[in-house]
């Protein structure tokens, strides 16, 4: 009898210990079809200020980071459509914690651990990298009751993982790549944090499902869209990123279809300076992470030739007499939308010249439509119908 009781006690203890290791997936949001809203901020503050002297050294560093992201993709023909895919890479599509990048503070795990996710519109993966560096926001998987992994590699030094993620006040279960570089790797010196990829799934470097599409399919989001709206305070460097809908009520947006799957690339009919059309049929990628409008060198020269006194600076930047104050509009879906900022700041304190918003970039004919235009509008990205909507903020 004593032996039976002893054996029973051991079995109960084993069950109790095993139960402690059952993966907890987090409580799914009780709301069916929600809109999740989170504030995002630009690391290091706003890159440019029309009322201040331009920091050309910082401009160039941020520009190079932006160009690096776009250089790591290629176009492919898939059936009767063109898609964009990532090149075979030994490392992630974009580094974490770069100056000038947009990021969101979110809670990952249970109990929640604050992780800063960099917004990346040239990737579709969710990454979390935990390094030995004291910089950044490190995620400790062992401290989360809801973390689960089968320890299968989905990329170099990265395993497929599952945990709960809080966006605003909404909780989701998310699959992501959890990366831990080996101690001998120079990557251990990089800051910890995450990357939130918002491009189409063709730009995935892992086999994991796209968070956004997966959440919509499971009925956790009201609509298959996300939206970005800048804060109207020109002195701030913040915006609102919303999933499943828009943060605030607006008139119906004007939509244009995505031309190449991968980036959020659409066709703009024309660009106008002071009421005159100077360029047309612009293939533009909407990218909130770019503080500039990037364009092919020839197009940039045509644009600045329409502004009296404009002259080139170094590294693809241009300047023009500040008193010219050009009125720049871009045509989208039959409507003219103004650039919020026509100047990135003065060249020098005592200078009468301002740095223009268009920057030369050889991206195989592509434009990258960034902050000088997007600050004045709300941008809506529709996964379901593969289109981009724009409306005045």
Low-confidence stretches are 1-32
Number of strands: 25
Q: Specify the biggest β-sheet.
A: 6 strands, mixed, barrel
CATH class of one domain: Mainly Beta
Order of helices and strands: HEHEEEEEEEEEHEEEEEEHEEEEEEEHEE
Question: In CATH terms, what is the architecture of one domain?
Answer: Beta Barrel
**Tell me, what's the shape?**
globular
Please give the alpha-carbon distance between the first and last residues. Answer: 78 Å
Mean pLDDT: 86
Strand content: 35-45%
**CATH T-level topology of one domain:** Cathepsin D, subunit A, domain 1
Computed over alpha carbons, the radius of gyration is 24 Å
Instruction: Give the CATH superfamily of one domain.
Output: Acid Proteases
InterPro entries: Aspartic_peptidase_A1 (IPR001461), Pepsin-like_dom (IPR034164), PEPTIDASE_A1 (IPR033121), Peptidase_aspartic_dom_sf (IPR021109)
Keywords: Signal
Family: Belongs to the peptidase A1 family.
Pfam families: Asp (PF00026)
What does this structure look like?
The chain has 393 residues and is mainly beta. The protein has a domain at 250-392: Cathepsin D, subunit A, domain 1. Helices cover 14% and strands 36% of the residues. It is built from five helices and 25 strands. The strands form five sheets. A six-stranded mixed β-barrel has the order 4-5-10-6-9-8. It has a five-stranded mixed β-sheet with strand order 20-19-14-15-23. A hairpin with a 2-residue loop joins β19 (328-332) and β20. The longest helix has 19 residues, at 2-20. The protein is globular and about 60 Å long.
């Amino acid at each position: 009898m004593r032996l039976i009781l002893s054996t029973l006690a051991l079995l109960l203890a084993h069950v109790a210990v095993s139960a402690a290791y059952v993966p907890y997936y987090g409580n799914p949001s009780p709301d069916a079809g929600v809109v999740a809203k989170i504030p995002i901020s630009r690391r290091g503050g706003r890159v440019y200020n029309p009322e201040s002297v331009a920091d050309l050294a910082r401009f160039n560093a941020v520009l190079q980071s932006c160009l690096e992201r776009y250089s790591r993709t290629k176009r492919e023909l898939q059936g009767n459509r063109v898609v964009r895919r990532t090149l075979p890479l030994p490392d992630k599509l974009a580094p974490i914690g770069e100056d000038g990048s947009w990021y969101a503070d979110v809670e990952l795990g249970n109990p929640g651990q604050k992780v800063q996710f960099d917004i990346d519109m040239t990737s579709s993966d969710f990454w979390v990298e935990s390094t030995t560096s004291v910089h950044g926001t490190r995620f400790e998987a062992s401290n989360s009751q809801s973390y689960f992994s089968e320890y299968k590699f989905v990329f170099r030094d990265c395993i497929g993982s599952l945990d709960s993620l809080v966006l605003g006040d909404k909780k989701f279960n998310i699959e992501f790549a959890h990366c831990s570089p080996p101690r001998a790797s120079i990557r251990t010196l990089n800051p910890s944090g995450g990357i939130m990829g918002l491009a189409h799934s063709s730009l995935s470097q892992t086999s994991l499902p796209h968070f956004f599409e997966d959440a919509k399919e499971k009925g956790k989001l009201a609509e298959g869209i996300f939206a970005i709206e800048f804060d109207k305070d020109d002195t701030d460097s913040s915006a609102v990123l919303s999933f499943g809908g828009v943060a605030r009520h607006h008139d119906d947006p004007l939509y244009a279809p995505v031309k190449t799957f991968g980036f959020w690339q659409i066709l703009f009919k024309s660009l106008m300076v002071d009421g005159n059309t100077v360029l047309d049929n612009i293939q533009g990628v909407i990218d909130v992470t770019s503080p500039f409008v990037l364009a092919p060198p020839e197009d940039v020269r045509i644009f600045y030739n329409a502004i009296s006194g404009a002259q080139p600076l170094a590294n693809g930047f241009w300047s023009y007499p500040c008193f010219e104050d050009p009125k720049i509009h871009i045509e989208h879906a039959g409507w003219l939308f103004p650039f919020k900022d026509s100047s990135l700041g003065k060249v020098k304190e005592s200078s009468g010249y301002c740095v223009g918003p268009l920057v030369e970039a050889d991206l195989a004919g592509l434009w990258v439509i960034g902050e000088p235009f997007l600050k004045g509008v709300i941008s809506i990205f529709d996964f379901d119908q593969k289109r981009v909507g724009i409306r005045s903020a």
